[in-house]
Specification:
Strand 4, helix 2 and strand 5 form a beta-alpha-beta unit. The protein is globular. The termini are far apart. The strands form two sheets. It has a seven-stranded parallel beta sheet with strand order 2-9-8-7-6-4-5, with helices on both faces. Helices cover 32% and strands 16% of the residues. The chain is built from five helices and nine strands.
């Protein structure tokens, strides 16, 4: 083999190995066992004697979600729109969580001219969970999620005004955006989207979904 061809072959092999080791190299079309929660919620996450009704809000004890982790191969699509500082902070937190938990994460950046198409593209991947980051997605998610009840959604840093049982949200007083029709909350504070708060949001929200507490708002204050 000539040196140039050998170099190309070595580079191709190295690329294949890197892709194969990364989560994005897995074939999501292959069947596999349903994902499960590894670990359990700690005291104070939820009152087991008073199960929350759909659309209700719970305020878990800080850190009560830390014992819950996704099982191997958990498939998540990060659906995002917008380049504002809060959205960037949420995206970073989701990616950091996925790396730490070895989640199989893929990302869809929705086009502002057709946000619904971005949501549909995320669902077409058939993930275990779609995580939404960015206020621009709230209104289209309200329409799409209600018509696709088998797909689980997790909204971080905002919430739907009338979520169905497949939409879980994590919010706090500095966030609280619920759609254009309701306007921005009077307590909205972009500075509240700290790295610590956004990390808690994805971890608390994922723990809720993994343990079956869906269709509710997890309040972090």
């Amino acid at each position: 083999m000539r040196p140039t061809l050998r170099a190309v072959a070595v580079l191709a092999l190295a690329t294949a190995l890197v892709t194969g080791c990364g989560s994005s190299g897995d074939d999501w079309s292959r069947p596999r066992p349903a994902p499960t929660a590894v670990g359990a919620l700690g005291p104070g996450f939820i009152d087991p004697s008073a199960s929350p009704s759909p659309e209700s809000t719970i305020t878990p004890r800080p850190g009560s979600w830390d014992g819950v982790h996704p099982s191997k191969g958990y498939r998540v699509v990060l659906l995002t729109a917008g380049d504002d500082a809060p959205t960037r902070a949420l995206v970073t937190a989701v990616r950091d969580w996925a790396t730490a938990e070895r989640v199989d994460l893929r990302t869809v950046v929705a086009d502002h001219n057709d946000l619904v198409a971005g949501i549909v593209r995320a669902m077409d991947m058939h993930p275990d969970l779609v995580v939404s980051a960015g206020n621009d997605l709230i209104d289209p998610l309200t329409v799409v999620s209600a018509n696709h009840l088998s797909q689980q959604f997790l909204v971080v840093g905002a919430e739907l005004a009338e979520p169905t049982h497949n939409v879980t949200a994590v919010d706090w007083s500095g966030a609280s955006f619920r759609g254009e029709g309701l306007g921005m909350s009077s307590t909205y504070d972009a500075a509240s989207f700290t790295a610590e708060r956004c990390s808690a949001a994805i971890r608390a929200g994922a723990a809720a979904v993994l343990t079956g507490w869906t269709g509710i708002v997890v309040w972090l204050d």
